């Protein structure tokens, strides 16, 4: 049984401050859970990792992904797991460039 309270949302926000005004812009967000699985034990599962279209290819995804990896390590997770649709070529390229690999295919 999955505990709804275990879902965590993190965001990367750019804050612009000037003498006339200030505003915040969300650069990216990630939703994840720490859970125990029969196959892998304690894991950090990434439900969503989304970068604002205007800010892609600027390293923001890497910052969030590095945070997720470190959070998994500091939480004693054995693995970081995620699913990505077969049609998500850009996502696959991103994850592979960050040391991830395809380990299974779901139907």
From TrEMBL:
This is N-acetyltransferase domain-containing protein. Pfam families: Acetyltransf_1 (PF00583). It comes from the Eukaryota. The lineage of its organism: Eukaryota, Sar, Stramenopiles, Ochrophyta, Bacillariophyta. Residues 1-107 form the N-acetyltransferase domain. One of its GO terms (molecular function) is acyltransferase activity, transferring groups other than amino-acyl groups. It comes from Grammatophora oceanica. InterPro entries: Acyl_CoA_acyltransferase, GNAT_dom.
